[in-house]
């Protein structure tokens, strides 16, 4: 599962002030990110809807640079990524959640209002499940909110652990991990004489199926979901996520405004998620297990997405559009 991990030590989640060497690294990060075309950066910013949570294009670009450098764009450390690989990596992230987290870390109030609206209830429920007590759960959740808000100060500056979220896994999964770690930390402080294996943690019930079976179910659900896609939807997904085409390039092929492409992609991704959840649940998974399955690292799924998107290309396209698609092989 592609859930980001967080250190059990609070200090490990705080971004330290940069040293001279780190400042040099930051300059390289900015230089590396500048290799991406400005229209790609703006496209990513629009896709993340970063402006709606108060994050400027410059702030969002800085967050991307930090994540890319930290993870080397999901490539081996010996590989120097090119602009296309960087763009592909950024598009694989949970961009809207990344924008929200980093906007909260920068203390934008509009972002915090959205964060609390989206995550307060599920985090409180998770904290109650982890602690096994409504009282302890609410206390654990409130403590995490304070930490995330950055009430702790380092060298006179307020810092939030949200600045370390990289967007590879879901933000909710990342937050649940921190909750579990904070619960263990608290138990260790109050029950130092108790061995770790006796911790009274109300952990999630283990799956009765092997991981391989869950991956098989997810693979089948993806195949069923993609089979029902219209040809033009397949083209949109393949062009944007697999071929790294920009919104502008796709809009020229389909002869519509790029804002229309952006809205269609957003709606299409949301519909795919709903359909995947439905197919996973119809395959025997609970709602919670189905939601967690969607956080699986794509590299663990033995599915050729390009093959799925290129099958069943019916005559739904107009002749002019199909001709444009087949003749547009170079970037516009």
Q: Explain this structure to me?
A:
The protein is mainly α. The chain folds into 3 domains: 94 residues, no CATH class; 81 residues, no CATH class; 116 residues, no CATH class. Helix content is 61%, strand content 1%. It is built from 15 helices and 2 strands. A two-stranded antiparallel ribbon has the order 1-2. α5 packs across α6 and α9 packs across α12. The protein starts with 19 loop residues before the first helix and ends in a 5-residue tail after the last helix.
Order of strands, main sheet, comes to: 1-2
What is the oligomeric state here? single chain
The number of strands is 2
The fraction of residues in strands falls at: under 5%
Can you tell me the residue ranges where pLDDT is under 50 for at least 5 consecutive residues? Answer: 1-31, 193-211, 312-332
Radius of gyration, CA atoms, in whole angstroms: 22 Å
Helix/sheet category? mainly alpha
Mean pLDDT: 74
- Domains (count): 3
End-to-end Cα distance, whole Å, is 37 Å
Number of helices: 15
Helix content bin: 55-70%
């Amino acid at each position: 599962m592609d859930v980001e991990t967080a250190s059990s030590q609070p200090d490990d989640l705080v971004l330290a002030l940069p040293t001279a060497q780190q400042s040099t690294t930051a300059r390289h990060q900015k230089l590396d990110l500048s290799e991406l075309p400005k229209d790609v950066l703006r496209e990513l910013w629009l896709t993340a809807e970063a402006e709606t949570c108060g994050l400027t294009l410059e702030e969002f670009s800085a967050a991307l640079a930090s994540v890319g450098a930290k993870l080397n764009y999901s490539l081996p450390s010996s590989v120097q990524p090119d602009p296309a690989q960087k763009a592909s990596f950024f598009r694989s992230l949970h961009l809207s959640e990344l924008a929200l987290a980093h906007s909260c870390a920068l203390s934008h109030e509009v972002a915090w209002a959205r964060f609390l609206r989206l995550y307060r209830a599920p985090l409180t429920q998770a904290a109650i499940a982890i602690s096994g007590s409504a009282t302890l759960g609410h206390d654990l959740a409130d403590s995490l909110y304070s930490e995330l808000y950055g009430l702790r100060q380092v060298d006179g500056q307020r810092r939030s652990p949200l600045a370390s979220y990289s967007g590879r896994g879901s933000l909710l999964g990342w937050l649940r991990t921190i909750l579990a770690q904070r619960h263990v930390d608290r138990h260790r402080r109050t029950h130092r004489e108790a061995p770790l294996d006796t911790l009274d943690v109300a952990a999630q019930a283990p799956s009765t199926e092997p991981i391989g079976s869950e991956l098989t179910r997810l693979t089948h659900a993806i195949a069923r979901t993609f089979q029902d896609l219209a040809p033009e939807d397949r083209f949109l997904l393949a062009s944007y996520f697999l071929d790294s085409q920009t919104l502008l390039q796709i809009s020229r092929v389909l002869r519509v405004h790029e804002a229309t492409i952006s809205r269609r992609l957003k709606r299409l991704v949301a519909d795919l998620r709903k359909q995947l959840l439905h197919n996973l649940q119809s395959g025997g998974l609970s709602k919670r297990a189905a939601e967690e399955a969607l956080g699986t690292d794509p590299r663990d799924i033995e599915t050729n997405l390009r093959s799925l998107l290129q099958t069943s290309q019916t005559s739904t396209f107009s002749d002019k559009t199909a001709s444009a698609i087949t003749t547009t092989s170079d970037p516009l």
